[in-house]
């Protein structure tokens, strides 16, 4: 059987993406094949596609199907998979290749999709949830302490803000002017990012115990100053991390995080990020809108 997938064979702008008809991928041991219902778009998709992680190379070793986050129906089981069955509705992370009609995922990276959750929201969650929980664990913030989430209006920031608040942590959330009300609606105190960040934060609190840099932009020196030292700051994207002695966190999740967050969403305790849907044919536009920030919310591709 064949099915459609987004694919690029050389690094570059959105124009290198094409929709191809290819043989369905076959699940290896521990994997399942999903009929994809929705695949999230993350900055990692276009950072990889532009070759930013492979300086000096013009092309990947073999064509790449982008996309890490997925929601779909289990269609085929690889050897040794006992926790899932054909027809199960699931969401979670892939090792890449989600922006397609069919994709492979490790069975243990998937959780059941509650009926209350739309496919679009389900497909948008894996990366932001695993990242948010991982960094909160690294920071080790306690109930009653004050956390600055820099980029509280972004995909990772929205998750981190809500999880921290639910743990009894006070959250100051930085965002652009247009997202101040969104951050307030999550239950955090909003401040505007940019040149006035330090004064803005100090106007609302005289204490910041830790900083989660979920934006990776703006002045890292400002974040270090607000936290009172680099050891209380963790970034997921700032290029100046090493220069400032700040921990850069990448990869890996926290056991149970996705199931917990999904459970809270289904119960109505947490809010999902807003999703904006693109057909698979517009995957290049979706990645580009994510790169430029032209469209707010979590962008999702539907095959
Ligand atoms: N290391 C990892 O494991 C990992 C995992 C996931 C993501 N990331 C990286 O983390 C970053 C955020 O990911 P995301 O999916 O949450 O992205 P996103 O949804 O696009 O959110 C970006 C956030 O950055 C804020 N922002 C934009 N311009 C800014 C500026 N000049 N100064 C300060 N803040 C600014 C945005 O605020 P407004 O829109 O309100 O202006 C928004 O809150 C990306 O660079 C991504 O590649 C890393």
From TrEMBL:
What Pfam families would the database entry show?
ADH_N (PF08240), ADH_zinc_N (PF00107)
Q: Which InterPro entries match?
A: ADH-like_C, ADH-like_N, ER, GroES-like_sf, NAD(P)-bd_dom_sf, Zinc-ADH_QOR/CCCR
Coiled coil location: none
GO MF terms, alphabetically ordered: oxidoreductase activity
Q: Does the entry feature the keyword Amino-acid biosynthesis, yes or no?
A: no
- Protein name (record): NADPH:quinone reductase-like Zn-dependent oxidoreductase
Recorded hits in SMART domains, A to Z, give: PKS_ER
Q: What PANTHER family does the record tag this protein with?
A: QUINONE OXIDOREDUCTASE
* Keywords assigned: NADP
The species this protein belongs to is: Actinomycetospora corticicola
Question: Which residue range or ranges hold the Enoyl reductase (ER) domain?
Answer: 12-301
